[in-house]
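User: I'll paste a sequence; please echo it back and then give the predicted structure.

Assistant: Echoing your sequence first, then the prediction.
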Amino acid sequence: MITEFVLENGLRVLHEPLPQLRTVALGLWIGTGSRHEEEEDKGLSHCMEHMLFKGTVNRTAAGIAREIDRLGGHINAFTAKDCTCFHTKTLGEDLSQAMDIIADMALRPLLQADHLALEKQVILEEIGMVEDYPEELVHDILTERTWAGHPLALPILGTKESVDAFTAEQLNRFHKERYVPGNAVLSVAGDIDAGTLQACAAQCFGGWPVGGTASVLSDQPVFRQSFTLQRKKTEQAHLCLAFPGVSLDEEDVWPIMVLNNVLGGGMGSRLFQRIREELGLVYSVYSFPTSYQDGGLFSVYAAATPGKVREVLKRMAEEIGRLASNPVPEEEFARARQQLRGSFLMGLDSTNGHMMAMGRNRIISGRIQQVEETLAAIDRVAPEHVQAVSRRVFLSKTAGFAAVGNVKLTEDVLRGFSF
């Protein structure tokens, strides 16, 4: 059972006791990601994530790493479009030390100009790496075009120009505004009792001063039809289609996940079985939904040799059209729903999985959702719900398309996707 208490400064602390396990996972979630950035701050949330590991008033960067290593634990972080998370996993008995490290990083980072100059080079290398991974690049290109003009279109890493222009003053201003207790959630799952957690949280985070403002959402994103080709010398052409999806708070969020399992969410899916197994046209083909507070996408990806691209797209259109036009047979629906149920439960096999699930729910949607509630929501999905969401997603006559590779295409290839 997940419980919550709030410190006097407004920090929300979530607790899920798992006494049968020896470990504890801790995550400090900040409600700031790339979608909350101003134009001049593109990539600053991600840069801040890096900079918090560069040392604090009390610890050097090497000291942070060695202290976690001595515990036999792990520490890491990530930046998403809608949040930033710093997390650890240790033995339950070492939680207080791990929490002290995370609190020190979040509350007392150095954010020095010389550290920033070095870390910029690391981030620029990271941006460059995306260019070498066309599968990742094609998704970024399509998102940028599909939501053009909206912060959700911005790359999480920023651009070479924006990163190169960052200053220490800019970082300190951003930290003072966004890294405040009212814009944060502390999520803890594992071998820790409520009393110990409350004492640790009060000691480590009780002195976090109230200030700044919580991140606010921009206007709702508008889906824009697009067609983009980026010529690149690659053996395969990387193709990605995007359709309007659903937001996190909609009832369709679970039906679209079942829909995804039917279409391209695994080895038993229609796209995989038809395009790879039966026709042998590709090695990789899959689909996935992406949901945010106020919008979403449904994406379909494949990689194929340039000479097979048109055939692959034709077969994609056939499978998507069949799904949009006909109800999913009961047996196939039951298998797809059980796949979703099973993957959700297997994601909770670790303390880290529990911490991630409850922390993300709370910081993004503001909800505390118990495991039983999620399972009940999945079980309520019926075949007619999947049929309805498939018509909503695929019958809009709206699709975005991007391709990266040595391929020549024209927009006429999308005509088969108007059902």
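Residues 177 and 212 are 4 Å apart (CA to CA). Residues 113-131 form the longest helix (19 residues).
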